[in-house]
Design a protein that fits this description.
Blueprint (H helix, E strand, L loop, with lengths): L3 H10 L1 E4 L5 H17 L14 H10 L5 E5 L18 E6 L1 H4 L1 H7 L2 H9 L5 E9 L9 E4 L7 E2 L4 E6 L10 E3 L10 E5 L5 E5 L12 E2 L7 E5 L4 E3 L10 E8 L3 E2 L10 E2 L1
Antiparallel strand pairs: 1-12, 2-3, 3-4, 4-14, 4-16, 5-13, 6-15, 7-12, 7-14, 8-11, 8-13, 9-10
The chain binds fe (ii) ion.
Length: 275
């Protein structure tokens, strides 16, 4: 379904936007499935995640053991001084991760579709395997910033092979925090590697000391609901906080090639799922 020009521009830019790739109905199905997960989620079950004691430690544990689970993560600004949710939980969740593509039937069927496999293979990932899925809410007013990074930092393989699929479940605009990328940045050397050791200590190792682009230099990818943004693991990208009144829901998949060696230092070690 991809033409030669699309393949060329992906290899040149490290990024490809496929507008109207999916129907509104398909996106609404994902949205409803995510809403159900949040509905079933007891916000008190993970309140310790944001307790004042050992905050980072407990959050890390909740995060680090989520590779093969479906878990809800709160926005940083979701709680008041007394650790109470400031607003309804449906407007307080930052994301759901990280095994929706395995454990949730709606996300599993969508993620393993022939269409997605065809796109990923056409762009050069011959033996695609899904490592991670996330449903990102980017809530109105409190949806936080995602700093500049490259996805290969979190999915290190030799050779580097991770490819990210970013599905716009809702319209993404500059105001609600759309993805912004480094123009022509698909061959930027990998700057950082996120590692996890056997004691579950994590670290961000600096591999390359060149600065990130300035935010003003970035190319904002404003896309309509149903669009798919595909980018490679070396493309620097970030997203600004959501300062608008509308959410910016997105679903993402991180896929590597089975013929590349997946680093044992990667934080996520759950068995990948063949696409
Ligand atoms: Fe990313």
């Amino acid at each position: 379904m991809l033409n030669e020009q699309q393949k060329m521009s992906y290899h040149r830019d490290g990024c490809l936007v496929l507008e109207a790739c999916f129907s509104g109905t398909e996106m609404d199905r994902l949205k409803a499935a995510a809403a159900k997960i949040v509905d079933d989620f007891d916000p008190n079950s993970s309140r310790s995640v944001f307790s004042t004691q050992d905050q980072s430690l407990s959050r890390d544990d909740y995060f680090l053991s989520s590779g093969d689970k479906v878990r809800c993560f709160f926005e940083e600004d979701a709680f008041d001084d007394k650790s109470e949710l400031k607003q309804d939980k449906s407007l307080s969740i930052n994301k759901i991760g990280h095994a929706l593509h395995v454990l949730d039937p709606v996300f599993a069927a969508f993620s393993h579709s022939a269409k997605i496999k065809e796109i990923v293979q056409a762009l050069g990932t011959r033996q695609p395997q899904i490592h991670q899925s996330m449903y990102i809410f980017k809530q109105p007013k409190i949806g936080g910033v995602i700093r500049w990074h490259q996805d290969a930092t979190y999915f290190y393989t030799t050779p580097i092979s991770v490819i990210t699929l970013w599905f716009a479940v809702e319209d993404a605009t500059i105001q609600n925090g759309c993805i912004q990328v480094k123009k022509g940045g698909g061959e930027t050397p990998l700057k950082e590697q996120f590692t996890r050791d056997k004691n579950d200590n994590t670290a961000l190792r600096v591999l390359e000391n060149t600065p990130w682009p300035q935010d003003e230099e970035a190319l904002p990818l404003e896309v309509k609901k149903g669009s798919l943004i595909v980018f490679n693991g070396l493309l620097p990208h970030f997203s600004a906080p959501n300062i608008s009144d509308t959410s910016r829901h997105a679903y993402t998949l991180h896929i590597t090639c089975a013929s590349s060696a997946y680093a044992k230092e990667n934080w996520l070690q759950a068995a990948p799922s063949k696409l």
